[in-house]
Amino acid sequence: MIANSPAKSHTTSTRILSSLFIALFSFSLFDPFSSVSAVNESLTYLWPLPWEFTSGNETLSVDPGLSLAIGGYGGNSDILRAAFDRYRGIIFKHSNGVYLFDRLRGRRLVYDISKLSIVVNSDSEDLQLGVDESYTLYVAKKDGQSIVGGATIEANTVYGALRGLETFSQLCTFDYGTKSVQVYQAPWHIQDKPSFAYRGLLLDTSRHYLPVDVIKQIIDSMSYAKLNVLHWHVIDEQSFPLEVPTYPNLWKGAYTKWERYTIEDAADIVSFAKARGIHVMAEVDVPGHAESWGNGYPDIWPSPSCREPLDVSKNFTFDVISGLLSDMKKIFPFELFHLGGDEVNTDCWNSTPHVKQWLQDHNLTTKEAYRYFVLRAQDIAISLNWTPVNWEETFNTFAENLNPRTVVHNWLGPGVCPKAVARGFRCIFSNQGVWYLDHLDVPWEGFYNAEPLEGIDNASEQKLVLGGEVCMWGETADTSNVQQTIWPRAAAAAERLWSKKEAISTGNITSTALPRLEYFRCLLTQRGVQAAPVTNKYARYPPTGPGSCYQQ
Amino acid sequence: MIANSPAKSHTTSTRILSSLFIALFSFSLFDPFSSVSAVNESLTYLWPLPWEFTSGNETLSVDPGLSLAIGGYGGNSDILRAAFDRYRGIIFKHSNGVYLFDRLRGRRLVYDISKLSIVVNSDSEDLQLGVDESYTLYVAKKDGQSIVGGATIEANTVYGALRGLETFSQLCTFDYGTKSVQVYQAPWHIQDKPSFAYRGLLLDTSRHYLPVDVIKQIIDSMSYAKLNVLHWHVIDEQSFPLEVPTYPNLWKGAYTKWERYTIEDAADIVSFAKARGIHVMAEVDVPGHAESWGNGYPDIWPSPSCREPLDVSKNFTFDVISGLLSDMKKIFPFELFHLGGDEVNTDCWNSTPHVKQWLQDHNLTTKEAYRYFVLRAQDIAISLNWTPVNWEETFNTFAENLNPRTVVHNWLGPGVCPKAVARGFRCIFSNQGVWYLDHLDVPWEGFYNAEPLEGIDNASEQKLVLGGEVCMWGETADTSNVQQTIWPRAAAAAERLWSKKEAISTGNITSTALPRLEYFRCLLTQRGVQAAPVTNKYARYPPTGPGSCYQQ
C-alpha cells in the first residue's frame, strides 16, 4: 500500500531534485502566478547540452501546420525533407487539431512560429568521419527586436541540420493547458557542434540476433542523443547472421535460417542510419571470436576440436576474409572498418599438427602468427581503401608493426588512448570499466564522468582521439531488453562526447546533470523508447514502485 | 567464455525441442533433399491456433507487389484498406526488390500469389461486444484443382477480416534463399472464430504513466495475438492522468503536467484500437483506489487524513463521478464501462466526524455505505447507457443488490465465475493466481492452462462467461519493461481465449504448445515488440546467455 499522494511524495522526497521541481512547478498550468523566470536561472533541459546558447523569458506557440522553408545549396535534400516530416510527427503528436469539447472550440489560434527555415550551405550528402555537424538555431518572435524571427536552422551540411532539428524538437513542449506546442524561454540562440567526431554505440548481433526493425528503433533513438556511429559487431563465435554472396555458406552459421541479415537488409540499415546522420561501422572480428564461420566452411577451422582462432596456415582463410570484405565494401561506405583482433588465445594452434608444422616452417611463434594474421587482414582492408580499426590487444602486443593508419579501439581499461596517441595512432575510447553497457553495476555517473581525453594534455595528441563508444554486448541482451540496457546510460556518454567539457564537468552533477538526464529519459519514453529508470541500483532494473517518470 | 558452436549447442541441448527443429531443419535452404513433409505431420506455427484448418504440401511464392481486391458490402472500408497496408509492411519488410548482387539479378520472377481478395459481407463498422470476428481464409495455387485460387479472406465484418489478415501474415514467411515471401504447406483452408467474445489486457496508467505512443505499440501487439479488449485502468490512487473537461482540476492529480492524457489523446487511442478491432474499456475505480482525485478537488476526500474511499456523504462526490462519466461517454463507445469497486477499506469513514454523522443519519453501516456508493455509481453508468463492470468484491459482498446487468470481474481466485453465472450475472475471468502479469513467478504454462469455464458445465451458464483478461498492473512496470512483462505470457492466455478448447488442451503442451509459443515470441520480436524469453525462471528476466530466439 502506497499511501502517499503524489503531492505528498513530492514534498517528502529526500532525493535532491529541487532544481527539476523548480522547473516543473514554475510552469504549472494551474498557478496564475507562475513564471518561467526560475527556469531561466536554472537548468536547460536539452540533451546533450549545446555548446553555446542564450535564452530569454518569452513563451512562443508553434503552429501545428508548421511549414518548412529551405535554402542554400543543400536545402533540397531528400534526407532533410524526410527528417522534417519525422520531427513534425514527434513535435505534434498531441496536436491533432481535434477539439472534442467546447472549451477550446472556436478559439482563434494565432501562432508565433509557423515556419521553420533551414539553410544548408553544402549540397554534399557525403557522410564521412568528421563531417561538419555544427549548426546554429534561432527561435524568436517575429518583431522589430529580433534580427531573425521565427525558427531558423543554419548548417554547413544536411547532417548539421539534422542535429539542429533534434535540438529544435527538444525545445518544443506540448502544453496541456492550451493544447498547443510551445517554446519556453525564447528567444533562443544556439550555436552547437560536437566535441568528438566519433560518438558510437556497439550492437552485438551474434550473441543474440536483433531483427532489422529493432536495429532501426535503436538507430532512431541514437539520433535523439546525437550519437553518430553504429558499430555493428555483426559476427562472433556464436553465430554468423550476415549474408556473404561470395561465400554463400557462411550464414549457415546463423542460429536458424530466420535469424539472418540479407545483403539488402544490411544496405537498408546503412541507408536508414545515413538518413539520421549515423555512420555504420561493421566489424569482422578475426582471428578469434570467429568460430561460427566454420559452420559453412569447416576448412577455416584448424581442426574440429580447434575452431578458433581461424586457421592461420591456409590461404583459404584469407581468401574468405578477402571475399567477405569485398562484399561488405559494397554495403558499408564508412571509411572505418573494424577487424577485431581481441581475446586471441592461440594455444590450440600449437596442438594442431598442420598448423604447428606451418609455424615451424615459417619460424613463427604463435604470438607472431597472431600478428601475421592481424596484419594480413589489415592489408586486405587497406587494399579496399578502408581504414582498419582494431581492438587494443593488437596495439598492446605489436604496436610497432601496426599500419600507422590503424585506429586503436580501447576497451580493457584506462590509459590506453594516451599511449596510442603518443605513438601517433588514432584512438577510440571504450574503457569497459565505465562504457560497457552490459556492466549493469556501472551507474549513470560512471558513464557521465568518463573522459576520453584523460591523461592527454597535448593538443595535437588530443586531436587523435576520435571519440568514444559505449558497447552493448549481447550475451544477456536481446530484443526484449536491449533498449532499456542501452538507455539512459548511453545518453550520459553521449553528452560527454558532444558537449563542451567545461560546461558539463563543473559543479555537482547530481543537481546539474541528473534532473536533465531524467528529463531526457522521459523524452525517450514519450517517443516510444524503452529507456530504464536512471537511478535504479542496477541498470535496466524495473522501477521499485509507483511514481513519476521524472523521479525514477 | 561460451565455447559451444551453435551446431553443438543444438545437438547437446537437453530441451525438448525436437518438434521445432524438425520444422527448422526440414526447410533448410542448403539441403537439396529438404522436404516440407515433416512439417505437415508436425506443428502448425500459427498463434492462436485456428479452429479448423487443412493444409497441403506445396510451397507458394507471394508477390511483393501483392494487390488487394475487395468485395462485399463492407469491402470498401477504410479500416480494411489501412490494415492491408499495415500487413503489407509486415509481410514484405525484407522484400524491397533491391538485389545488390548478380546472383539474383535478372531472374524472371513469377509468383503464385499476386492478389489478396477480401470479401466483407456487412458494411457496418460498429465495434461492440460479440461482434462477428469469424473469417475463412483460403491460400491455394490458381490451377484446375483448386476451386478458389490465390489468397482469399471472407468475413461477415471488417473485424473478422482483420483477424484473417493477421493469420495470413503468419502464413507468410520470408525465405532467405530465394529472397521471397513464401507460404509453406499450401493449400491452406482455414475456418476460424474466437471461443470468447472478450479477450482482454489490462493496462494501468496510474502507477506509471505510459505515453500514448507506448499504448499504441501495445495495441498493435495485442492485435497480433488476436486480443480484442484494452481494459484501460486509467486512474488509481497514485495519479489521475486523464483530462476531464467538466472537472478540469482532476488531472492536477497527474504525477506531473507532462504525464497526462488529453481527451483528444484518449479519443486517438480509441480510434487507433478500433482500426485493429480492439475495444477500449475504461475504468473509473470507486470508491477506493481514488485518492488522486482529491488533488484537484480536496472536498472529495472525507478529510485530509482520510483520502479514500471517496466521501460517500457528499452529493459533490457523485456530481464529480457523473460529470466524469458523462465526459468519458463521449470518448469511449464500448458498451462496457468498469467501475472498479475493489479493495475498499472503509475504516476511516467511521473516524471522520461528518461521514460518521451521515452514516448514523442514514442508518447505514460502513459496509452498507460501500454498497450504496457502488450502486449509486452503477446507476450513473446505466443512465448513460453503459453496462457496468465491477471487480468481484461487489458481487462477493452484495450480489443480491447488484444491478442484473452487472458484469462480474473475477480476480481474487478461482471459483468466482461459476458462482456469478449461477446467479445469472455475466463474468470476466482474471484469477490473479494465473492471469496477473505482474506475478512474475507464474510461468507461461500457468497462463496457458487457465480455463475461464472451469467449474461451469451448464451450456447456458457457460455463455455468461464473456471471456477473460490478463492484467498488467503497473507498480513495477513502466515504459522500459511493460512489453516484456506482457509478452509472451499474454499470448498464452490469448490462445486459451481464442482457440478450440479441445485442440489446445490435449497432449503434452511442452511439445504441442511451447515450440509454437517460442515461434510466436520470435515473430513478435521481428515486428519490433520486446517480448521476453518464454522459459526464463521469472517473467521478463533477461536471457541467461547467448542463443537463438527460438530456443529461449
Describe what you observe in this structure.
Two copies of one chain form a homodimer. Chain A has 552 residues and is an alpha/beta fold. Chain A has two domains: 8-192, Chitobiase, domain 2; 198-551, Glycosidases (TIM Barrel, Alpha-Beta Barrel), CATH 3.20.20. Helix content of chain A is 33%, strand content 17%. In chain A, α12 links the parallel β13 and β14 (407-409). The radius of gyration of chain A is 25 Å and the shape is elongated. In chain A, the strands form two sheets. Chain A has an eight-stranded mixed sheet. Chain A has an eight-stranded parallel sheet with strand order 11-10-9-16-15-14-13-12. Chains A and B meet through α6, α7 and α21 of A and α6, α7 and α21 of B.
What's the short story on this structure?
By secondary structure, the first copy, chain A, is an alpha/beta fold. Chain A has 21 helices and 16 strands. The two termini of chain A are 19 Å apart.
Number of domains of chain A: 2
Give the distance, in angstroms, between the N- and C-terminal Cα atoms of chain A.
19 Å
Low-confidence stretches of chain A: 1-41
Strand order of the largest sheet of chain A: 1-8-4-5-3-2-7-6
For this entry, what is the oligomeric state of its chains? Answer: homodimer
Specify Rg of chain A, calculated over alpha carbons: 25 Å
CATH architecture of the largest domain in chain A: Alpha-Beta Barrel
* Number of helices, counting only DSSP H or I runs of 4 residues or more of chain A: 21
The percent of residues in helical segments of chain A reads 25-40%
General form of chain A: elongated
Question: What is the fourth-level CATH superfamily of the largest domain in chain A?
Answer: Glycosidases
Largest interface: A-B, 93 and 93 residues
CATH topology of the largest domain in chain A: TIM Barrel
Mean pLDDT of chain A: 90
Proportion of residues in β-strands of chain A: 15-25%
Biggest sheet of chain A: strands, sense, closure?
8 strands, mixed
Based on secondary structure, the structural category of chain A is alpha/beta
Question: Count the strands of chain A?
Answer: 16
CATH class call of the largest domain in chain A: Alpha Beta
Signal peptide (chains A, B): 1-38
Protein name (chains A, B): Beta-hexosaminidase
GO cellular component, one term (chains A, B): membrane
GO biological process, one term (chains A, B): carbohydrate metabolic process
